[in-house]
Write a structure and sequence with these properties.
Blueprint lengths: L1 E5 L6 H10 L3 E6 L15 E4 L5 H11 L3 E4 L5 H6 L1 H21 L4 E7 L22 H20 L2 E7 L1 E3 L11 H10 L4 E3 L9 E3 H13 L9 E3 L7 H11 L5 E3 L3 H8 L8 H7 L7 H17 L1
Parallel strand pairs: 1-2, 1-4, 2-3, 4-5, 5-6, 6-10, 7-9, 8-11
Helix pairs in contact: 1-7, 2-4, 4-5, 6-8
Length: about 325
């Protein structure tokens, strides 16, 4: 299989590429730039293509040149970035999605995999939130995810392109940037491990669903590979674990007793976090394609520490 990963220089792109290369697939990473050293051990093992998903002609050229079988469309501006730059977010998240899926249709790709988000739901969702619950997001990022889900379903029903969505909790792990509202969950682990203080911008009792990066990558592979006949829908919520911010701090302090973690809630960011579900009901994913996360909070913190220590010795 030849896979095209948009947003290939981002948080999840290189990790997904490593997993695909390891099992023998050919991989093309597409992004607007590839900072020096970003690909690390992937250098020479994957192709790269510089393009902007917001520019249709550039996306079509990538499809023409590489002719992928499957697309993992990871390119997006996250929630905080979308609030700061709504025009850019519209072009990247909404135009970019259309360009990617239309390119897949025009060049006869077989499958199109899309990460949706817990942010696609709105305030008042039940706990846990059912897979088919009404989606009324309060952010442009969430709106763009609902747009992708609906348009992808249309493309599957109308053109036969196999469209599959994994509706993700907040993904944490080494290499994540600060563009999302939920980035606190990563930085309150990473900064203390590095010996740095961190001011958490939410209340201690804030609870949102989280997923460790290794589980997210395994999920992408599983939903991609699932036989079409076993899938009862296009979009599947997945659940990892749902600690409070205070519980994350306590788990970090068990390993870093002198961790300097301070809670200084920001009203605007807290409002967005409060609009998200606390847990997602992932029963359909478990039943249809064998979704089983491996990491709980303790395992995620331990995995994070191993990854950072491994990086520091290389």
């Amino acid at each position: 299989m030849k896979a095209l990963i948009t947003g290939g220089a981002g948080f999840l792109g290189p990790a997904l590429a490593r997993a695909l290369v390891k099992r023998g697939d050919s991989v093309v990473l597409l992004d607007v730039a590839f900072p020096e050293g970003r690909l690390g051990d992937l250098t020479g093992k994957v192709e790269t293509h510089v393009a902007n998903v917001a520019i249709f002609s550039e996306v079509l050229e990538a499809f023409r040149r590489h002719r992928p079988d499957s697309i993992f469309h990871l390119a997006a501006l996250l929630s905080a970035g979308a609030i700061a730059s709504p025009t850019e977010a519209y072009h990247v998240n909404i135009d970019g999605f259309f360009h990617g899926i239309e390119g897949a249709r025009l060049f006869d790709a077989k499958r199109f995999i899309f990460p949706s988000s817990v942010a696609s739901f709105g305030p008042g969702a039940p706990d846990p939130t059912p897979n088919e619950h009404d989606q009324k997001p309060t952010t442009l990022y969430g709106v763009s995810k609902v747009f992708g889900e609906r348009l992808g379903e249309y493309y599957q029903g109308t053109y036969g392109l196999e469209f599959r969505t994994m509706r993700l909790p907040s993904v944490l792990g080494p290499g994540r940037g600060g563009g999302g509202m939920s980035a606190y969950s990563t930085f309150m682990i990473e900064r203390p491990i590095r010996g740095e203080p961190y001011d958490v911008y939410c209340r201690e009792e804030t609870r949102i669903p989280l997923l460790y990066v290794d589980d997210a990558i395994e999920g992408f592979l599983r939903i991609h590979d699932a036989p079409r006949a076993k899938l009862s829908r296009c979009t599947y919520s997945v659940q990892g674990f749902s600690p409070t911010a205070g519980e994350i701090a306590a788990e970090v302090r068990r390993r870093v007793p002198d961790a300097k973690i301070t809670f200084r809630p920001d009203a605007e960011r807290q409002k967005v976090l409060d609009s998200w579900p606390r847990r997602l009901d992932d029963a359909p994913a478990r039943e249809d394609w064998g979704w089983r996360p491996s990491f709980d909070l303790r395992g995620a913190v331990d995995g994070y520490m191993r990854a950072l220590r491994g990086a520091s010795t290389r």
